[in-house]
TrEMBL record:
Localization (cell): Membrane
GO molecular-function term, one example from the UniProt record: structural constituent of myelin sheath
UniProt cross-references to InterPro entries, sorted A to Z: MAL, Marvel, MARVEL-CKLF_proteins
Gene name, Swiss-Prot/TrEMBL: Mall
UniProt protein name: MALL protein
Origin species: Spizaetus tyrannus
């Protein structure tokens, strides 16, 4: 006589979809990453990009990261991942690579902030660049938290 065994429950956590994205770590970091990254871009654009070589890279990283993160957030909200394990790998690789790029951008923005201290529009551009540097480092920290917290889910 064979007994039917109960189905084994999956031990892997499911990926969030819909509003649950905003309540689940690390996916709840996506919206603050987008908002802080947008502030970086806006603050640098307000300085008329005084140092194009430095701040051009910062604007590229912040704008492209915001757009890709927005696409990733939309894909989580609409459940395009279909609970595939590959999405966790994609998410981790994207956020890890973006954290490295944002760190380079934050350092270049800090350099632009130091250089703008004695510039022709000194107080205003220095304050805008300081705020952009602050948000660039905060955004870097958020991307690092997101990349590493995927492993501790």
């Amino acid at each position: 006589m064979a007994s039917a065994s109960p189905p084994v429950a999956s031990t892997q956590p499911t990926l969030p979809s819909g509003p649950a994205v905003f309540k689940t770590v690390p996916y709840a970091f996506i919206l603050p990453e987008i908002l802080c990254g947008t502030w970086v871009w806006i603050l640098i654009a307000a300085t008329s990009v005084s140092f194009p070589l430095l701040q051009g890279w910062v604007m590229y990283v912040s704008l492209s990261s915001c757009l890709i993160s927005l696409l990733l957030l939309i894909s989580y909200l609409f459940g395009f991942h279909k609970n595939s394990e590959n999405w966790k790998v994609l998410d981790s690789l994207y956020h890890g690579a973006t954290a490295i790029l944002y760190m380079s951008a934050a350092v270049l923005q800090a350099n632009a902030t130091i250089r703008s201290e004695l510039g022709p529009n000194s107080p205003l551009y220095y304050q805008l660049n300081s705020a952009a540097s602050f948000f660039a480092f905060i955004t870097t920290f958020l991307y690092i938290l997101h990349a590493f917290s995927i492993y501790y889910q």
